[in-house]
Amino acid sequence: MKLLWVWVVLPFAFAQLVTAFFDFNETELSLIESLEYGVSKINYNPLMVGLTLIHTAGAKGAVCLDGTLPGYHWHRGYGSGANSWIIQLEGGGWCNNIRTCVYRKKTRRGSSTYMEKQIPFTGILSEKAEENPDFFNWNRVKLRYCDGASFTGDSENKGAQLQFRGQRIWLAAMEDLMSKGMRFANQALLSGCSAGGLAAILHCDRFRDLFPRTTRVKCLSDAGLFLDAVDVSGGHTIRSLYSGVVGLQGVQHNLPRICTNHLDPTSCFFPQNVINHIRTPLFILNAAYDSWQIQSSIAPPSADPHGYWHDCRLNHAKCSASQLRYLQGFRTQMLNAIKGFSMSRENGLFINSCFAHCQSERQDTWFADNSPEIRNKPIAIAVGDWYFDRTAVKVVDCPYPCDKTCHNLVFR
User: Fold this and answer.
1) What pLDDT score was predicted for residue 241?
2) Is 264 marked active-site?
3) Scanning 7, 90, 194, 392, which has its CA 20 to 30 A from the CA of 221?
4) Rounded to whole angstroms, how far apart are CA atoms 152 and 270?
5) Percent of the chain, pLDDT > 70?
């Protein structure tokens, strides 16, 4: 039976979320990411992990949009995992102009002042073996996202008092964690979800270069395969967004040179133009009908002035036959984008035909009795099999509606 996850939010909170979504959905918080820390019933008593500010970051100019110190949440590994590290890069959209970045710096996405002092560690960050079989006793770190350019910008706007220092935050965080024992790691995994999944791709080889060749180092991008797709009006909503992010935040200097040598910087912010050149083993976990991309890239309100896509955008069950054909075309575009990537023996792939976004952090989708599967293999086991070289993992689901294990996101 297909399990539909329906979010119910208090009216006042919902009004705020709707306002944020329709004002900033191309740049800021989608409804999905606004509810990122909603804890599923499966893990009703999750581990809460405190925020650590990086006090050495200020002197390096490695600060959030508003100039506050960046931070992370770290739960120390033990036993067989004492020298194993997983770094999870937080997601949360982007800001592509002064207006949206000024808005963002008054939220947890742009200032450590507004960050939760504790967050739940679930899914790939869970400390319970029954919830996270391969990584439960590792050092598990969640690096907070407060720059608005997937940890890649390096510039400022003095007039608006904005610091675009994502690249410096990345460097300061890695330096701090190396000093706290990560330099002794015998295995490490750089992971991230959404904008953090994009960051995990862009920083993958840099992460590999932190360690000796004897260290097993791999990367996992969850819901980070943002496609350079045409929206329902024939426009380029997400390309326009990315162009603004790259130009405003000085991202071009920190993108992989192997890409920028032959493509424009905005194109090199799209994973499809980078993944074939990454030297480090990379696993791509993505829903074929990614909920964020449907809502904010393919059929955003700006590209759908008459609201034809409104109901479909919120609930796939309300999509017409022609809308489903359009979404099947999007899935085909995704599969074409990963063809070359999937040829590499070392890379991994899990593309399920769900209407979902970020499946590694939520307990119900990562590893539970009824979590999503392809060929009877849940996501956590697929990622573990790939990371530890137990078996090659390159699985692509049959098209919607064949998969009955999906936890599809439905918005009311």
Assistant:
1) 98
2) no
3) 7
4) 13
5) 89
